[in-house]
Amino acid sequence: LVSRKKKAEDTVVDINGTKIGNGELQFVMGPCAVESYEQVKQVGLALKEQGITLMRGGAFKPRTSPYDFQGLGLEGLKILRQVGDELGLSIVSEILTPQDIELSLDYVDVIQIGARNMQNFELLKAAGSVDKPILLKRGLAATIEEFINAAEYIMSRGNGNIILCERGIRTYERATRNTLDISAVPILKKETHLPVVVDVTHSTGRKDLLLPCAKAAIAIGADAVMAEVHPDPAVALSDSAQQMDIPEFHSFMETLKGAAVKL
Ligand code: PEP
Ligand code: MN
């Protein structure tokens, strides 16, 4: 169902009027994790200034270590919803379990399925059974074919509003946190009719690479760019090394706006 052979036209995912996949470049920005109302509000205000309507933020965090911050859970979703309503932003947030899909419907505008859950088939089926856009991230070590099949799980249950997200894959290279598989973008766009987002934060794990990788993503045809923004990354409870602070975010956006025209 996700194949271009089944449907030649691009799928455009409409999130409260913001369209991903119609040829216009979109941005999904926000903190790694929701930490407080104040933190989310500050980031939301910065997004508004840049005309961005899609705010990300993790309430349920799938951390490598069980001793690391696991997220605020439902409280985090409530904060996202509150700030989203106050500022007119749409909320993108990761849901970890099939049981929480139903609960999330009242709080999020896009359900994110994280890299670690790309082949959690029960979660994919649950996401496929609701009427809510899904942002599906590529697994840490998933082939493009496996990634496409994960999207097929969702669509085969009836939910066709899927955004694919390339977020880097595990390779032998240690200079970056993951290896951004930039050629996955045109391959996914050729093989499927779904929109593609590139997450420059989790793929690189390096602040100095966010801008060049975002430029590459735009040049190669990504429909949207995702990156993390935190008011004070030094004290962030997760991904503190690679989140942009607010002035860095503004300069990132200004540079890309200039670059996008030239490309
Ligand atoms: C995230 O986007 O918050 C995240 C945890 O990313 P990934 O699933 O790609 O590691
Ligand atoms: Mn993160």
In short:
The chain is 36% helix and 16% strand. The protein is an alpha/beta fold and 263 residues long.
| Estimated share of beta-strand residues | 15-25%
End-to-end distance: 32 Å
Strands of the widest sheet, in order across it, are: 3-4-5-6-7-8-9-10
Largest sheet: 8 strands, parallel, barrel
Helices and strands, in order, run as EEEHEHEHEHEHEHEHHEH
CATH architecture: Alpha-Beta Barrel
Number of strands: 10
Q: What count of helical segments does DSSP give?
A: 9
The small molecules bound here are: phosphoenolpyruvate, manganese (II) ion
Computed Rg: 17 Å
Describe it for me?
The protein has 263 residues and is an alpha/beta fold. It has one domain (13-262): Aldolase class I (TIM Barrel, Alpha-Beta Barrel). The protein is built from 9 helices and 10 strands. The strands form 2 sheets. The protein has an 8-stranded parallel barrel, surrounded by 6 helices. The protein has a two-stranded antiparallel ribbon with strand order 1-2. Strand 3, helix 1 and strand 4 form a beta-alpha-beta unit. The mean pLDDT is 97.
Which key terms come to mind for this protein?
263 residues, alpha/beta, TIM Barrel, eight-stranded parallel β-barrel, two-stranded antiparallel sheet, 9 helices, binds phosphoenolpyruvate, binds manganese (II) ion, EC 2.5.1.54
